[in-house]
């Protein structure tokens, strides 16, 4: 038996999106020395809003990543900034921790409701 609520489904999408952001950041970091590589990213808040509009659909749509504008491009054509990526990774980690805590709280509420019903 699988117990889900609208909030838990939204939180799972939040966690999936946060994980996707971490993978993108890791890819940017891995390509810091690749000539011509352009930093990839997406607007987290905008993408999460788009994901929330699809809650109830089974399929999770992948985030639409794109080149990040406004970064300094080195002579080899690469524009990865390890400072920016470090900040993005820290933000993603905080978002993930928040999502896990909120999900734990949501499931705790569900369990409390189940136990209250059983009495």
Task: Describe the structure in your own words.
With 119 residues, the protein is mainly alpha-helical. The protein has three helices and two strands, in the order αβαβα. The protein has a two-stranded antiparallel sheet. Helix 1 runs antiparallel to helix 2.
What's a concise summary of this model?
This protein is mainly alpha-helical. Helices cover 60% and strands 3% of the residues. It contains three helices and two strands.
Overall pLDDT confidence: 90
Major β-sheet strand ordering: 1-2
Helix/sheet category: mainly alpha
Helix content: 55-70%
Per DSSP, what share of the residues sits in E-state strands of 2 or more residues?
Answer: under 5%
Q: Between the first and last Cα atoms, what is the distance in angstroms?
A: 20 Å
Number of strands: 2
CA radius of gyration: 18 Å
Shape type: elongated
Low-confidence segments, given as residue ranges, are none
Number of helices in the DSSP assignment: 3
Would you list the SSEs in sequence order as H and E?
HEHEH
């Amino acid at each position: 038996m699988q117990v889900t609520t609208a909030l838990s489904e939204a939180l799972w999408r939040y966690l999936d999106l946060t994980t996707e952001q971490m993978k993108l950041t890791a890819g940017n970091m891995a390509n810091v020395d690749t000539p011509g590589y352009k930093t990839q990213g997406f607007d987290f808040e905008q993408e999460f809003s788009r994901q929330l509009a699809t809650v109830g659909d089974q399929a999770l749509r992948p985030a639409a990543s794109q080149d990040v504008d406004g970064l300094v491009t080195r002579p080899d054509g690469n524009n990865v900034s390890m400072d920016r990526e470090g900040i993005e990774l820290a933000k993603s980690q905080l978002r993930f921790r928040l999502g896990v805590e909120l999900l734990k709280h949501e499931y705790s509420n569900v369990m409390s409701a189940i136990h209250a019903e059983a009495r």
